[in-house]
Amino acid sequence: MRGTVLHAPFDIRFEERPDPRIEQATDAVIRTVATCVCGSDLWNYRGINPVTEPRPIGHEYVGIVEEVGAEVASLRAGQFVVGGFAYSDNTCANCRYGVQSACMHGGFMGTCQAELIRIPLADGTLVALPEQPDAGLVPSLLTLSDVMGTGWYAAVAAEVRAGSTVAVVGDGAVGLCGVLAAKELGAERIIAMSRHDARQKLALDFGATDIVTERGDEGVARIKELTDGVGADSVLECVGTAESMTQARQSTRVGGTVGFVGVPHGIQIGGDELFRTHVGLRGGPAPVRRFLPDLIGRVLDGHIEPGKVFDLTLPLDRVAEGYAAMDERRAIKALLLP
Amino acid sequence: MRGTVLHAPFDIRFEERPDPRIEQATDAVIRTVATCVCGSDLWNYRGINPVTEPRPIGHEYVGIVEEVGAEVASLRAGQFVVGGFAYSDNTCANCRYGVQSACMHGGFMGTCQAELIRIPLADGTLVALPEQPDAGLVPSLLTLSDVMGTGWYAAVAAEVRAGSTVAVVGDGAVGLCGVLAAKELGAERIIAMSRHDARQKLALDFGATDIVTERGDEGVARIKELTDGVGADSVLECVGTAESMTQARQSTRVGGTVGFVGVPHGIQIGGDELFRTHVGLRGGPAPVRRFLPDLIGRVLDGHIEPGKVFDLTLPLDRVAEGYAAMDERRAIKALLLP
């Protein structure tokens, strides 16, 4: 089969690789129906996370089950499945507590921009659809694998509830899905921070009520201005830099909550500040598996269409163009079809 | 009247001071029935917070209303009142959000180890009892002014709920009240960290199910051992040092929550760590006013007796002995009676 391999910063190739096979009795192998490029892949692509040797890449996928290991009970060949970017047994103490992305026996996917994918702990990782979905739903189902699940977790971690005022820092695909999640969870006001025309439009389409184009201190001031000097009840941090995290905390009202899902790079938080502001913090790699059944339902019944974050569709063998377009911010998110 | 003044580190005096009087129409003046020494007073007493000039001290009190300003609507002379260590209008956006300790027009009490106390924003700060309480209830009512309200907030911020496994870092009066709060909130298992015999006994009396005497890494290891390697769902941090905060975070299960109420001294938290562990954090000066009606009810009906944290009772004019006893850890908490 063919799969994507990152050879060095900015050197990404689609090339022949060994077919994955069942290695453990709990594995499945799936044939990819769709995959995509994640904002977090860019940390590697850009060499910000060092690339020391060629490595396969990609962690978002939907597909058709090809084969299952002897111990896989809930899946069979031919089913359409969605799974998260983390694999999990869904039975350990962490999974039962709702943090499947920190499964005691799990790990992270990393070979998914490929024609075939081995899925460890398939019973605890994959959710099979009752039937084959319409092709038009595939992009939205694919977002549940990471980006929409992550936006959802940001909103849940930020304690968004009916009537909340929410601010979203980051207008990447995760931030945009965070807007959609906040809307679904009943937020009354959703302030999206973006200075990019197409992203603003999508944010408004997903339910944003206000757009703030300012950043840093000016962005914070603008959010305060929009909220009678109070700040937002819930802020979704969807970037991961020290600047964006500071902006998120400072945009939060006293006693409000920041949900952070941007992979942190160089973030230190002072205990004094948290104490003074009563701001609550929770974040991490989203436990997508926890949300899959609910979110699949919302996609299948047409209630949400997170697949709109894909503004570039490419055949999988042109994956390198997808990376380049996202790196240069010409695309929000690139959908790849084998 | 006479009141307590901190002149310099370890130099605390009870001396003649001007009678407080109504300064604003929203003020009340109360005659102190009981006051006490707080662990946080020791930061000043020990000179860790610099003492540059003589200043009155004390922020915990119950008393009888002497006089109210023209705009005070809910109180009248002769009523027995409990108030928090922060004063608040109880009507601003922060108060309505439940964070009365960050009232937009409020502040912190600081002259309460005295015979008379001026209470700003009396309507929003004080809660009057329906009738004079039995003398035996006065110590417990006094704890609601800070220490029990703070232990309660630690448990609420740590998201303690029915069935939770809770660990409490800090065996001072706040930590002990945290144990009691966790018990009241339905925790199934409460691990108190203490190596002090009298404090262990009180923790057990308040509902602790396990005592851990180890500290630091060993304390963390012991908590993991007691929880099948998982950690506690909720950890109450009731000290405020970098060491205790680290111990608290590391004792928390993946996806669990730390409620921190120890005033932070030199605490920095890495975003990476929070991301990796999914541990939620919330803390701050407790919004005691929010909890007063509920907690007063629990004391009046005999359901809780947080006044047991007082193991030393002194006449107010011997306040200096109370500081010395707490500084030397000979007393958990000193009750002062005018």
Short description:
By secondary structure, chain A is α/β, with parallel strands linked by helices. Chain A has helices spanning 39-45, 93-96, 122-125, 138-143, 147-157, 173-184, 197-206, 216-226, 242-251, 271-277, 288-300, 319-327, and strands at 2-8, 11-16, 28-36, 55-56, 61-68, 80-83, 86-87, 107-108, 116-119, 126-128, 165-169, 189-193, 210-212, 232-237, 252-260, 268-270, 280-283, 312-315, 334-337. The first copy, chain A, folds into 2 domains: 2-146 and 287-337, Quinone Oxidoreductase, Chain A, domain 1 (Alpha-Beta Complex); 151-283, Rossmann fold.
Structure description:
The structure is a homodimer of 338-residue chains. Chain A is an alpha/beta fold. Chain A has 2 domains: 196 residues, Quinone Oxidoreductase, Chain A, domain 1, CATH 3.90.180; 133 residues, Rossmann fold, CATH 3.40.50. Helix content of chain A is 31%, strand content 27%. The first copy, chain A, contains 12 helices and 19 strands. In chain A, the strands form 4 sheets. In chain A, strands 3, 5, 6, 9, 10, 18 and 19 form a 7-stranded mixed sheet that branches. A 6-stranded parallel sheet of chain A has the order 13-12-11-14-15-17, with helices on both faces. In chain A, strands 2-1-4 form a 3-stranded antiparallel sheet, covered by helices on one side. In chain A, α7 links the parallel β12 and β13. In chain A, α6 packs parallel to α7. The mean pLDDT of chain A is 97. Chains A and B meet through β15, β16, α10 and β17 of A and β15, β16, α10 and β17 of B. β16 of chain A pairs antiparallel with β16 of chain B. Chains A, B: This is Zinc-binding dehydrogenase.
